[in-house]
Every structure is written in structure tokens, then in C-alpha cells.
Inverse folding.
């Protein structure tokens, strides 16, 4: 890195140096993103720590704005007045100032012209205003390196062993989560990258307070990292009394960042992690230098049911490479090859181990020590492991969020009109078990029209690079939404997919998205979303039917007054005629004479037959007992009844559709002296009639 | 990694282990991609090696299929017959076989039914066939670990120093390209990742032959890597005579891969690297076990002009972080702070260094040793470097492809109808200079309708993850193509963008795409594409005009026979009347009598006036000198002439538009005894008339 080194001199980098120089690989792209990634890495570590001891997590996150002046005070660098004003970036020469003022005046004039032409508030005026604002911002805000924050995350987790703390936090690629186990972190990078970033920007160290459960003391460390050597550099180490029996960790560091650019991401991240971890409580506080810019959000715990924590498992034989086989053989404590196979691999029984050893041939015996295998025998073993069919891992070591939690989260997040959830079966890729859970929602608050995907991997939300992610791509391109009566463009569709696995095929160490090239995962994601859609389709079809029914009722109801009046006027006239039999209807006869002469007999009406009035309507009309109002009331009643009938029928159908068969459930009399007669079947119960008692 | 380690035991990974476990970060996602990435990493190293000694690169790439049987022979593992057939993945129990056959029969029946219904070749039939083929493939081809390849890449580059070879190839994060310099490789990962992959899959080592220019001996190594220790593991080391004075490197290794899945990517990569490196020759051979599947492609050198190689530069003050400042201070050989500032940083003159030291205050003096700065003074220096305005780096250390090379490449790649190229100015992000070059083409061979982007970074093609790339995103979303008369959906548009920089903000170590979040880069890419579009617009407008002109000519020509006939028939009749003066026109008078009675005098025709026939057309017609054919010939001539005139005018306009002013260029007579009269100006030349000779 030293620029004077000969161009082709060979240099060796420590992993810390490598990641310091290529921060973006770990999600530390720019100051704003660094702030975001720091928060999420610390939060995920905190959740893992609490879950590892089956404690309901309570995480406190604080981001405190640190002005440059304050930072300098902390670092012991006093403020210095500028001596040579012209050196600085924000220095403006007389000429530049003149130019700027001229430009501003011109812009203003242009704006005024636009206002005169289009009127205040018109689109072109607003566009011009926006442009001017952007230019002003670009001119003023381009200077980097002025925004600093102290990030603190406190949990109630397992804490860290006192002597391990320096290595856990001050050494890149060191960690406790490297086993075959579903964990949020995996790379051993997150917290260390935050520390490297703080060292690169503020130079201030990490501050750690930590206590293990039941410990009488808590550890207090102040440390940073020697990037060149990839070694922790301890400034202060002490143990403090822990009278309250507190356990957990509190980590604090000061970094450059950009709250205003990444505020929405940080808040979205916290909202989504609260969605997928409803058994955790989060309190978040942003403390600005000016109180009015501060922000405080609490995400309350919404359930006390914590999914069983994931367990470490063994390597599946089909997932191991040649190198790993060698390492396992070297590290094993097993005395014989058969025991080695059984103990170190998943899905290998004692009997299968025997068969494998027999199949190896090449002079391999089951009771030979694993360390004594020759290189060629190892190659043969590796090859055999890939040729033999093993059972798939069972996946009981995984800890999916659970349909209940997922549904709870979605309900809270988007308040949808409709929701369906599905948990897929355990699937396998390259010997790693994985489970896909999905929820699909339609409608709701704050949801845009179209497909909105929410992605979770090992129960962390993924917010970036969604265009390339397997979940987004599947939701957008591989689901025929129309087949499920969902309008991909117009409906507000939420697609929530959570994948858990001992190995998530992330692209990049930043854990930002899952590649689209693992076929097994593509298929599983698609199947899970489709399963939700099938459930939704039934509901949507029913909802459409209900909406139509409602509409029909509304239309019928609207017609009632007119219909009632019309019927009544007919009845009234009939009643009148019934009353005065011989009286001629004024509409009939009379003025029709001229036509009679021309048109002939065919247009002459027959005398009306006597009305059959079994129900005695006409006398009722005559007596004013039956009026238009009473007719309207009866019609309304009738429309309502149809509605109720259909609703009942609908409920019954829904019950049947949902597979709720009627169960025989009797309150049995205590004695057998009763005799029963016929059964009366109603929709919701069956009544047996008592026919005798002896 | 050992599964029996306590779940929360702290483990330390070597960088080699880290990348072995997270291969996908470096572009080693799956066997097919690994084959692709291995080829490209070796090819890029080879190009860098040749360019570093300004040698026109000649690269030979061979991929040789190695069957499993042959691999086993090489590894000394003989073939073994299966003893326990039921163990294997491809074993099919009687029951499974019965099931499969039943399913196949059923599928066949279904297919037959579809054929009966829709007819052979109909869409549903083909879809069903495809489904069946996919199912058969999935059932048979799912087994991994059977496809192996030997990859060899040979170059004529700088070679490697004998004693450095093990560390250069057998240690992750060690390299020669870590300076501030534009290079293809950067991470010190590529070749080592290929070695790790070979170790994980075949266990076979790297074989290297290398010689420096002018060396009497060449080095021969066989080595692999101890992944756990991140150390080279040398199997064989020797020096061989080098009588021919050859220099360069030849690397060979055997890996698992998948040629058929990634063949198209490998070929596309080679095509594109040939496009952007037209001064290099590439020969590629794929040797399959069966000769008929082999493939051979040569990419010839198309120019001998090699752009000047990039040079290493110094850190720009605005790009350094606190950590780097500390490291530079520690490593410098400068005796005083002012010398340190001038020597270690770009764009810092001696005078500026003095001013900077003065501005630091805090008791800092220009002649104090850089090593004696206190921590606080270092913090102050770092802060100052970010507050002060420095000149932007000049970018003359970069080596862009050049517009000429880019155009050459595009012409060869797509044979476009129209092309425009543009090289942007040197721009800067985070203190790193970068240059964006672009070419936009319209039309051509093998180009799909719509925007096709071709991306290059430090002169390597990027093929993957294009959806998230700054170039694709800019081309797709930030260019208003319609404004340049380009139809974004229907036209065949090729967008070629090449970015060179001392730091390319790649996302991930796989060098697959450039993130979309560096504003300076977004702006520069947009500007470069737009500059091409502006050029194209003129051409397109002209092409449209030319097309319209051609169309008009075609239409006019089409009308000529009819027009000639019509005119001639008129002339003929006129000539006849002229000949027999008193003869009455048969159309006139006679049958009009009845109407005369009704309509009156206004409809009566006047006697035709005598024809003015100045050109003597009518006699010519009468003499049969002017016929329809001669008329047609004259009209054709006229249409042609208009066309020629317009073409001339068009060319002149084009010349003027392109800024080609007419230069006075005379063949001067040797003596001055000539006198010249007036000048005759034509479109393309000026003629001076000779008026006298003394």
C-alpha cells in the first residue's frame, strides 16, 4: 500500500487490511451505509447472544449525533481558527463569489419569468425550484467527513468470556459461529468491520461492558484493532462488580456516518427485524444535537413464545469437499474409520458406515485409524461420499420463524385485507437443509400497488440489492399472479419470504441478497409463494362473491320504494275497480273511437276477468291496511332475509371448504335409561329427540 | 469448522479458509461459474503481465475435458467395481423402477393425446415435450462431481521471480498489484481461489512454468496451498534451461467445472476481452474427450498500437483515511513533514506543503520528523487533509482503452449501422481519478432489439449481475432515448461503456458489477452515453432525411411511365388538332345539344386559343421525334439530377457540419510569371483562371 514500494514487489495483506480496503464487500460502502451496517451487525449479534441462552431478547439501540467540535474535544484536539482561509474547500474567491451571485440572480429571474408565465405552483415552476435547491445542496453539502455518531447497542444475552473479548471483537475472521448451524452472523466480520471503520474515520476505540449469566463481575474493555497485524489492541481492561446480576453486552463506538441519508433504511430495518422477531423488544433512540431532530421508536414484544433456538449439526456427506474430508480426518478423536463416519457426518448410521467402508476397497478396513488413511484412500472416500445416496438432512436443527410469528408480523406491518401463510418442507441444497416460509398479503396500509417483497434470511431482513435477489425475482417473474385472481400491477401485494438454513448462499459478505442461481432454492421459494396464493385465491373468490352479493342487495334496496309504489298503484286501481264493478276505467274506451274505425276489433280489450285474490290483498288495500309503506317494509324484509340465508349458506360452505366436518359430540346422559328417537339435523348441531325413559 | 468443537468456542480463520468457505464472494459460486472465473482470472493476470513489459500480449487458453476415469488414473486411484449397488445415488429399486416406467408410459399417453388434439408441433405438445425432457435431465443429470477440466493459460508476459512464485500463487491476499494503480486484478485472490477450488475438488496441484525476460533459466514449480495456514505447499521446484529466451508464464490446474452450462459465458467473455484489447491475440481451445465436441477460436490482433500502460500514482489527500495516514507516516523515508506531504501525496506542491504545515498549528513544524507526530497531531493532519481543497488528480496515470480501440472493437463485435464514441474527461471520486469512455451503436448483427449494454471496468468485461450495475441502470433508466430519435424498445441499441480508475467500486470481490451508488460515476456514465447520443442524433436525422429522399425518388420514378404516357397523349392530341385545324374535336359539341337547351350559354366552350409552342414540341410529336419513351427518359434524367444535386448539397452540409472548412490548397506554378483572373467556386474546389503569361 505504501506508494513508494516497487510496483511489482510482492506484498502480503492481513485479512483486516483486505477488508479495510474493500469495505464495500462487507456492506460498508459509504458513510451512510456504514452507519446502517454497523447498527444491523450489532443488533444481529445481540439477538444471537440472547437467543443462545433462550432469553427473550431486549435490545437497546442508541445513535447519538456527535458534532465535529465535540468529537475533537473527545479526541483532545482543540478547535483551531483558520489561518489561511484560501486553503479550504469552502473558500470562495471574490471572482467565484461574483459568478455565483450572478448565477443566482439569473436563476431567480428565470424563476420569476416561469411564475409569470405559468402561475405560482405550476409544474415547471416547481421543477425549476427543485433544480435550484439541488444545486444549492450540491454546492454546500458535498463536503464529507463532518457527520459523526456514537452507536451503542445493549442486550440481555449471554455476554462474552472475559479473556475472549479482545479476540472476539478485535480480530477479523475470528468468531464463535463457524459451525454447521443456522446463525444470523456467519462471517466473523460484522462488529470488526464497524471497529475498522471507526478506526479509519474517528480513531476512537470500541468500548465494551459484558457479563455472563450468573457472573459476579462484569468485564470492561476499551480496545481497537491493529489493522496491519489483524490483532486486538487493548487500551483498558478491568472487571467491575456486578451486584445486580446483570448479564449481556453493551458495545459502543464512534464512527463517521450519514443519518439523514440512511435514516429511512435504519428505521425500515428495525421495523422488519421486529416483524420477524416478534418475541424481542427493541428500543431505538436517535439523539440529535438539536433535540427537535431526535427520534425515538419502541418496538414492543408481541409474544412470549420464542421458537426453539437452532442447534449445531454435523456435515452432511454430500456437502463436504476433499479439503474438508482431510481436515475432519485430521481433527477427529474417533479411533476407527467406522466410528469416524458415524460421528462426524449427518445421516450416517453405524450400519451404513460399515457398508461404506466395505465399498471403499483399496485395503481400507473399518477398524483402522482415520489418521492412517493414505492420500489416495482419502480421495476414494471423498469420491464415494459424493456417489452414495444419503438421506437428506432432517432440518430439525433449524429454527424457522414459524407461520404464527410471520403472520403476526405481517398483520402488524401492513394491516392487510387478506393474508395467507405457508411453511414449506425441509429442502436441501449441497447437503445443507433449508426451510422456506412465505406470507402473501393483499391490501393494507402503506403498501404500494404492485408486488412488494420483504426478504428475510436466517431471520434477518435484507434491504439492499433486491433486484438480483432470488425472492424478488421469483415473486416478480415466476408467479402467474393472474391465475390467483391477483392483479400484479394494481393490487397491493405484499410478499414476505423467510429462508433459514445452515448455509444461506449470500452474494457478498454484506449479507444483502441471495443469488438467483441455486435451483433448489428457486423452486422452494416459488412453491411457498404459490401455496399462499392458492389459499388467497379461495378467499379472493369468496370476497368477490360477497362484494357482488352486497352490490346486488344495494341495488335491490335502491329499487324498493319505486317497486313498492308501482305495485301499490296497481293494487289500488284494482281495488277501486273491485269496489265499483260497473264503473268504467277512464283510460279505457272513450277517446279511442276514431282508431276503432280504422284499426278494427283486434285492439279492443276484453273485459278483465274477476281477480283471484286469495290473500285478500284488495280489501286490505281498500281498508288502507296495505299501503306503499307496508309493501316497502315487506320487500326490505325479504331482501334482508335472502341475504341472511346466503350468508348462512356461505358460512357453512366455508366451514366445509375448510374441512371442518361435523363431529358427533354429545352430552351423554349419565345413565343408559334414556331412549332416543329421530335426529334433527341443523346447520350447526344435531338434536336427538328423547323418546323414552325407563 | 470441526463439528465437535463447542458451539461457542472462539475460532480463528485464515483468509484462505474464509474464502474457501465463502467462495461465492470471489465469483466461485458453482462448478460452472468456477470454471468461468478460473479462466478469466488467469487471462487477466496474463494480460497484466504482458502489458507490464509493454509486450503485445499473446495469450493461449486451453480447457481440456478430463473424464473421471482419467482423473482417477492421474490421482493413482484405480477404478473400482461397485460391490453394494444399492448404496449409490443412481441405484433404482425395483419398486422405483416400476413407478418410473408407469410414469413414463402415462406421460407418453398424455403426449399422444395432446398430439391427437392439437396436431404435431403445436405449442402445447412442444411444452409437454420440454417438460418431459427437463424431468429426464433432472433425474439423470443431478449428480454433481463428475465433470473435470484441466485449464492452462500461457502468456508472453513478465514472468515471475523464481523465489516469489510460491507466495504469489499459494497465499491468499498476497499480490503485486496493491498500489494506487489501474490494474485488472486488485484483490490478490483470483489465481489463489482457483487453486483452492482445485484443491477442494480434485486435490491436484498447480503447475507453473515461468521465465523473466532475458533469463537463462525458467522456473518450474508444482505446488498447492495449505488452506488452514494460508501457506504455499511446494511439491516440486526446479530450474530448467531456457535456450529460446522465452519469457512469460504458463499455469495449469485441474478443477471441477461445467463446460456445457458456462460455455456461452466463457466464449462471450473472450469475445469481449478481445473487443476491449484489440492489440492482444488470443487463441482458445476446448478439447473434449470426444473430438466432435471440441471447439477452437482464435481472436486475432487487430492493431499493434498498445495504449501506454497505466502508471502507479500517489494517494490523493482527500482519499486517505486516518489509518492510512498513520501507516504512511510510519513507513515514509522522508525526514521532514513538508517533504513527507510532498512526496507521499498527489497534488501537493512544496509550497502547498508549507502552507499545510502552517495551518496545522498545535506546535507542528515543517522540519519535524513525520514519525514524531503525536496521535493528536495526526488526527489534526487527517482532518485538515479532508478540509482543504486540493487539485483533482490529473488522471494521466490511467490507461483508457481509447476511442479508436473502442470503436474498432464495437465494429467487429456488432457491425452496426451507426456508431458514435466519446471519451469523457478525467473525473474524481473519493480522491481516485477515473475516466469513462462510451460507444453507442444502432443496428448490427446479433443484436437484440432494445438496449444491450456491454460493460468494461479497467478493461475487463463484466458479464454477471448486470441488473444492478451502474452502466446498465444508467442506460436503461437515466437516458431519454426518444430525445435522440432512438426507439428504446424497437431499435437495436448497443451501449458500450468502459471505466478505468485506480479504484473501481466493485460490489464483491468477484468483480462482477459496479454499484449504482457513487454519484460521480453515475453522472460521468450518463454524460458519456449522452455525448454519443448527441452525435448519433445528427446521423440519425440525416439518415431519416436520406431515407425519405430515397423514398420520394422511388415514388417519382414509379410515376414516370404513367406521367410520360399521360403527357404524351395530351401532346399527341394537341399535335393532331394543330395539324388538321378545322377538324372538330369529337368530344366537343354534338351530343351536348339537349343540355344547351336547359343550362344556357355558360357551359359552351370557347374555341381553343392557338397553342404557344415556343420549343416546337408539337411538330416534334408530329414527326414522331418526341414519343412517350423520350418523355420518360427525360423525366428520369430530371429525377436523377434532383437527387444528385441534393446529394451534393447534403455532402457539403455534412462537410460544413463536421467543421471541414475549405482550405486554400493550390498547385502553385514554379515561376511567378503567371497572372490569374477570376476564381470559379465549385462545391469541392476552386478554379483560378489563367489570364496571362509573361
Amino acid at each position: 500500500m505504501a506508494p513508494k514500494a516497487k510496483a511489482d514487489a510482492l506484498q502480503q495483506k492481513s485479512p483486516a487490511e483486505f477488508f479495510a480496503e474493500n469495505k464495500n464487500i462487507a456492506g460498508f460502502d459509504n458513510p451512510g451505509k456504514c452507519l446502517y451496517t454497523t447498527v444491523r451487525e450489532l443488533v444481529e449479534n445481540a439477538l444471537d447472544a440472547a437467543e443462545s441462552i433462550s432469553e427473550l431478547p431486549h435490545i437497546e439501540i442508541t445513535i447519538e449525533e456527535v458534532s465535529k467540535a465535540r468529537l475533537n474535544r473527545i479526541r483532545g484536539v482543540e478547535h483551531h481558527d483558520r489561518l489561511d482561509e484560501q486553503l479550504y474547500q469552502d473558500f470562495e474567491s471574490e471572482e467565484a463569489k461574483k459568478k455565483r451571485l450572478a448565477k443566482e440572480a439569473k436563476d431567480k429571474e428565470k424563476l420569476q419569468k416561469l411564475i409569470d408565465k405559468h402561475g405560482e405552483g405550476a409544474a415547471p415552476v416547481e421543477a425549476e425550484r427543485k433544480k435550484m435547491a439541488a444545486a444549492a445542496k450540491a454546492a454546500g453539502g458535498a463536503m464529507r467527513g463532518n457527520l459523526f455518531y456514537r452507536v451503542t447497542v445493549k442486550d440481555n444475552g449471554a455476554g462474552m468470556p472475559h479473556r475472549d473479548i479482545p479476540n472476539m471483537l478485535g480480530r477479523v475472521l475470528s468468531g464463535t459461529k463457524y459451525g454447521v448451524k443456522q446463525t444470523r452472523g456467519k462471517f466473523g466480520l460484522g462488529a470488526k468491520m464497524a471497529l475498522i471503520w471507526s478506526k479509519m474515520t474517528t480513531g476512537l476505540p470500541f468500548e465494551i461492558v459484558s457479563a455472563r449469566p450468573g457472573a459476579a463481575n462484569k468485564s470492561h474493555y476499551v480496545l481497537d484493532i491493529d489493522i496491519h497485524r489483524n490483532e486486538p489492541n487493548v487500551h483498558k481492561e478491568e472487571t467491575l462488580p456486578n451486584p445486580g446480576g446483570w448479564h449481556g453486552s453493551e458495545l459502543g463506538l464512534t464512527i463517521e456516518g450519514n443519518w439523514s441519508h440512511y435514516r429511512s433504511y435504519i428505521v425500515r430495518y428495525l421495523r422488519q427485524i421486529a416483524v420477524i422477531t416478534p418475541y424481542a423488544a427493541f428500543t431505538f433512540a436517535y439523539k440529535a444535537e438539536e433535540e427537535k431532530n431526535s427520534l425515538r421508536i419502541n418496538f414492543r414484544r408481541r409474544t412470549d413464545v420464542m421458537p426453539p433456538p437452532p442447534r449445531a449439526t454435523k456435515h452432511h456427506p454430500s456437502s463436504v469437499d476433499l479439503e474438508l474430508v482431510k481436515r475432519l480426518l485430521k481433527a477427529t478423536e474417533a479411533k476407527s474409520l467406522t466410528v469416524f463416519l458415524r460421528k462426524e457426518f449427518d445421516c450416517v448410521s453405524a450400519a451404513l458406515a460399515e457398508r461404506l467402508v466395505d465399498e471403499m476397497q483399496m485395503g481400507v478396513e473399518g477398524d483402522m485409524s482415520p489418521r492412517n488413511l493414505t492420500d489416495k484412500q482419502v480421495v476414494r472416500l471423498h469420491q464415494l461420499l459424493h456417489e452414495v445416496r444419503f438421506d437428506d438432512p432432517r432440518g430439525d436443527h433449524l429454527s424457522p420463524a414459524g407461520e404464527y410469528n410471520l403472520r403476526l408480523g405481517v398483520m402488524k406491518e401492513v394491516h392487510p385485507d387478506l393474508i395467507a401463510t405457508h411453511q414449506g418442507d425441509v429442502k436441501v441444497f449441497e447437503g445443507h437443509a433449508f426451510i422456506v416460509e412465505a406470507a402473501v398479503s393483499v391490501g393494507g396500509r402503506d403498501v404500494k400497488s404492485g408486488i412488494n417483497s420483504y426478504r428475510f434470511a436466517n431471520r434477518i431482513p435484507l434491504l439492499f440489492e433486491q433486484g438480483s435477489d432470488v425472492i424478488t425475482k421469483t415473486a416478480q417473474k415466476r408467479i402467474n399472479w393472474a391465475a390467483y385472481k391477483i392483479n400484479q400491477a394494481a393490487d397491493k401485494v405484499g410478499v414476505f419470504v423467510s429462508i433459514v438454513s445452515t448455509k444461506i448462499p449470500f452474494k457478498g459478505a454484506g449479507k444483502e441478497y441471495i443469488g438467483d442461481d441455486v435451483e433448489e432454492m428457486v423452486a422452494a421459494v416459488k412453491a411457498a409463494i404459490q401455496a399462499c396464493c392458492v389459499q388467497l385465491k379461495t378467499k379472493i373468490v369468496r370476497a368477490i362473491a360477497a362484494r357482488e352479493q352486497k352490490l346486488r342487495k344495494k341495488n335491490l334496496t335502491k329499487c324498493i320504494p319505486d317497486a313498492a309504489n308501482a305495485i301499490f298503484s296497481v293494487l289500488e286501481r284494482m281495488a277501486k275497480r273491485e269496489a265499483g264493478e260497473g264503473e268504467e276505467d277512464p283510460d279505457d274506451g272513450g277517446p279511442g273511437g276514431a282508431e276503432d274505425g280504422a284499426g278494427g276489433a283486434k285492439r279492443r280489450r276484453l273485459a278483465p276477468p274477476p281477480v283471484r285474490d286469495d290473500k285478500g290483498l284488495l280489501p286490505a288495500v281498500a281498508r288502507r291496511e296495505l299501503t306503499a309503506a307496508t309493501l316497502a317494509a315487506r320487500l326490505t324484509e325479504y331482501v334482508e332475509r335472502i341475504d341472511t340465508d346466503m350468508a348462512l349458506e356461505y358460512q357453512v360452505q366455508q366451514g366445509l371448504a375448510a374441512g371442518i366436518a361435523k363431529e358427533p359430540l354429545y352430552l351423554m346422559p349419565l345413565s343408559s335409561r334414556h331412549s332416543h328417537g329421530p335426529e334433527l339435523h341443523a346447520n350447526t348441531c344435531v338434536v336427538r329427540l328423547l323418546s323414552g325413559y325407563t
